[in-house]
Amino acid sequence: MDFHLTNEQQMLRKMYREFAENEVKPLAEEIDEEERFPMETVEKMAKLGMMGIYFPKEYGGAGGDVLSYAMCVEELAKVCGTTAVIVSAHTSLCCAPIFEHGTEEQKRKYLPDLLSGKKIGAFGLTEPNAGTDASGQQTLAVLEGDHYVLNGSKCFITNGNVADTFVVFAMTDKSKGNHGISAFIVEKDFPGFSTGKHEKKMGIRGSSTCDLIFEDCIVPKENLLGKEGKGFKIAMQTLDGGRIGIAAQALGLGEGAVNEAIKYTQERVQFGKRLSQFQNTQFQLADMHTRMQAAQYLVYAAAMKKQNHEDYSMDASMAKLFAAEAASDVTRRAVQLFGGYGYTREYPVERMMRDAKITEIYEGTSEVQRMVISSRLGVK
Ligand code: CAA
């Protein structure tokens, strides 16, 4: 795998890094503390093309590539896990399935506003009784003339309270199991659609996470995404891509914690020496950096395979599994190096540790990634 970045990718990386440092970092503590969605940052990212990085310009995208997208999420997560997941969920879980499975008419109708960041996207798969067991969908969609009527609810929906456009999954034929699930594009103003309670979370506290409620929700027939019964496959393919985004988020969180720990341990003096002069600190930092570097290779490899239209499902799972567990470990070690100060909100490492935990859970737990990887290995 050649990780040599093109001139364009290097320029984009520089732009994402500067944006993250100048516009995202100064707000990170405040939006976490206040559990406030950073809409002003989304508006700025939209102007820079960050809400539609790897989609063609003809649909309003920035015409970039999947690796640039992963690097964008990584750079954002180095300073703010919340901002990173806003971009990731919008891009991978809403724009991507519409681009990959939508009709030309659907793409022309929905993508320009989403990719330009005028509208925000979300993904409704998880239900109270269908989390890891995603095929156990209970939301029903019944075709009545020229529209479907949806009834049911979704939970833990990232961007839920702020999104305009949702890719939603529902059962159109219960007797067919996962082959009876279909995907729909739902607009927030469709009759019978509403959002429910906002979750109070351990980390990524500035991101919006809420329930979606469908009470005789009218969805025009032309908003069926893909064919009837193909929804589960669409969901699984979408999550393959989504896992690259979350892996990149985990990568950035771990790298951000390493950066903070390097800075702090060179300033803090105990026993007459800087912490960085102790061999324990040096070994910790060496291990932390090595883990994140290994994670970066996995994340970039998965992104490049997706870009090249190769089968990347297992690569995305390996990247997410490894990067998420590395991020949790590395952010925890960073807090340990900071000692008592690391446990306070005066420094960002405790927020990074809280933010990192979710990367082992959402878009498929680490256990789900192990299921995907072992099944790809043919282990039965
Ligand atoms: N691509 C295409 N098709 C796929 C696929 C993939 N990656 N993975 C599975 N499929 C297909 C299979 O080929 C199979 O097709 P057939 O029935 O035609 O043979 C079908 O899907 C069923 O496959 P499995 O038997 O493997 O499915 P399963 O029911 O055993 O589930 C699972 C497997 C890996 C556990 C899956 O359910 C899964 O990924 N669960 C986790 C769901 C998840 O990640 N949820 C997160 C929701 S989003 C979120 O986190 C919130 C947010 O907003 C950030």
From TrEMBL:
Q: Which Gene3D superfamilies match?
A: Acyl-CoA dehydrogenase/oxidase, N-terminal domain, Butyryl-CoA Dehydrogenase, subunit A, domain 2, Butyryl-CoA Dehydrogenase, subunit A, domain 3
- State the family it belongs to: Belongs to the acyl-CoA dehydrogenase family.
What is the recorded name of this protein? Answer: Acyl-CoA dehydrogenase
SUPFAM superfamilies membership: Acyl-CoA dehydrogenase C-terminal domain-like (SSF47203), Acyl-CoA dehydrogenase NM domain-like (SSF56645)
Record domain Acyl-CoA dehydrogenase/oxidase C-terminal: where: 229-377
Q: Any idea which UniProt keywords this protein has? A: FAD, Flavoprotein, Oxidoreductase
What is its cofactor? FAD
Q: Which organism is it from?
A: Oscillibacter valericigenes
Query: Per the database entry, which stretches of residues form a coiled coil?
Result: none
User: Which Pfam families does this entry report, sorted A to Z?
Assistant: Acyl-CoA_dh_1, Acyl-CoA_dh_M, Acyl-CoA_dh_N
Query: What residues does the Acyl-CoA dehydrogenase/oxidase N-terminal domain cover?
Result: 6-118
Residue ranges occupied by any Acyl-CoA oxidase/dehydrogenase middle domain in the UniProt entry:
122-217
Cited InterPro entries: Acyl-CoA_DH_CS, Acyl-CoA_Oxase/DH_mid-dom, Acyl-CoA_Oxase/DH_mid-dom_sf, AcylCo_DH-like_C, AcylCo_DH/oxidase_C, AcylCoA_DH/ox_N, AcylCoA_DH/ox_N_sf, AcylCoA_DH/oxidase_NM_dom_sf
Q: What does UniProt give as the signal peptide span?
A: none
